[in-house]
Predict the structure.
Amino acid sequence: MNLKKVGEDPYVGETLQQSLSKWLTPNDSFYVRSHFDFPKISKNEFELVIDGLVDHPISLKLDDLKKLPKKTLSATLECAGNNRSDLSPAVPGNQFSNGAVSNAIWSGVSLRDVLNLVNLKESVLQILFQGADSGETEKDNPHEPYLRSLSKDMAFDPDTLLAYEMNGEDLPIEHGFPLRLVVPGWYGMASVKWLTKISAIDSPFKGYFQGKKYVLKYTDGTQKPLEEIQVKSLITYPEDNSSIDQKKISIQGIAWSGRNSIESVEVSLDSGQTWNKAELVGPSEKYSWRHWQYLWNVPSDGEYTIMSIAKDTFGNNQPIESVWNELGYAVNGSKPVNITVE
Amino acid sequence: MNLKKVGEDPYVGETLQQSLSKWLTPNDSFYVRSHFDFPKISKNEFELVIDGLVDHPISLKLDDLKKLPKKTLSATLECAGNNRSDLSPAVPGNQFSNGAVSNAIWSGVSLRDVLNLVNLKESVLQILFQGADSGETEKDNPHEPYLRSLSKDMAFDPDTLLAYEMNGEDLPIEHGFPLRLVVPGWYGMASVKWLTKISAIDSPFKGYFQGKKYVLKYTDGTQKPLEEIQVKSLITYPEDNSSIDQKKISIQGIAWSGRNSIESVEVSLDSGQTWNKAELVGPSEKYSWRHWQYLWNVPSDGEYTIMSIAKDTFGNNQPIESVWNELGYAVNGSKPVNITVE
């Protein structure tokens, strides 16, 4: 994999800065965040069980899924802990810089089409997803699988996918081969990898990765489970702490916001005092990041602090400063880039 | 490469049927049509010369190009000879079935931004593009390079690219490493691979690959050079001559039309007597094919001939029958798929 290693056992890696400038992230450059070791699943032995509060529990082979209508969409996934290392004071967890975000084209079937095969009972409140990966969540805890739930509404959203292809290839093992839930617009923890079981349940799921982790815990005591990716932008060129000997610089970056489109990106060349509208460029797909650029005629040699902020079509503004929280999630403040023009 | 070989010396291959069902064609599955052997160009030695009727001829390294604003778009390329083997009577040339069409995400710079570096003289009419590949165009002809021109208008279209990335990777050698002209919406012959020279000229270019080949020559004597890709659709599932033991079949396919969007696709289940509107699904990008599907409740076992036709937003209709022409180009008639339901 073409990544910057952030953690081991299980492997965690973030996308390299030079790959963030690509609209499509190649599979081997797509950030990896797992909770347990990658489980090896053979394509032929794979079975997806759908059970719980349903009229007819079923089990589907990969070929059964491939006979259902194929659905393709592009979606940017971001790890909830991306940019965690920007927080001060520091918080525990994988110390991601800004590379735990990537964009791919996912193909599979609508989860809805699969749920419609089993007839849910009226009492169903949530759908629970189980990965084939398992282990200790904390030292000396019993082994348990990776589990996350979605509300019935989100589960029946036609864009919630059971994906078997990523960028036209079979899913790589580190991204959930052979089947992964993809919840477009939500932080990556919702997109359960190595999916092997789907259960209809009648009460809110409160397991480790939903009740204890992946919760925003603010200093005032309020708590909120992580769901939709917050509006954010990054500068991908120039690099932080670089020197440039040009007077015309094409500042480039990316911006994204969960299930909303990006409305505008503004760039500051003076540490945030004044702001200039950037041009949005490249593919414009609902759940994917948008490229932007700003052609800057540098007035004179010197040191500059460049910043960017994005706004989405729902009126959400990227904050200048990230809001500190105990576990370091949803860190979306403007990330300054310092350069020297000489 | 993961292709069906169609020709040798130089290698020609078409995309496999199972890969046509993917919105994004992975690089190793993208059809290959070349006119001469692949030239090997080293990244460091590469230079792009821009000369002819310009104030300041220049030569650019790859790194110079990468400092210009980066432009990304997705585009479907189709070889002008795709589906040539459907014509009757047969015509000479590579006998493509329907796989000489693929879709990728291309990144590079606007050709316009590069041309603006040199100041064209007023007399300039066309821009000529030269590949590093060369050879005999016909037996005993002198060696010559691959050459194609564009009108000034097309050359200055902001979407005409000098691409150095394909699906987020460096261009593979067979697709023109390190630099390829990409003319979105035009048949593939316009997207000159291994681009090494761009010349501003003041008369229409009439070379071998523009005046003699890649010309529609109809039986009534009319001739027309190939430019924009004609509206077309294909069925990607089920496969031709297959047997299916299901009564609910998700018919799937692709449709595309040069620089226009697809407005609708219709599917016939009775050899073209009656037509049903298909659903357009997946990414909708200006220059890329669109996926479509039609859920068919099969009335009874038997043999069926399935067909599809597309219409674009400009009002162009895909014909039922292809129009025969001497060199077998732009073959875009509806391609029937025969299946047995049992």
Remarks:
- The two ends of chain A are 36 Å apart (CA to CA).
- DSSP finds five helices and 24 strands in chain A.
- Chain A has two domains: 3-225, 232-341.
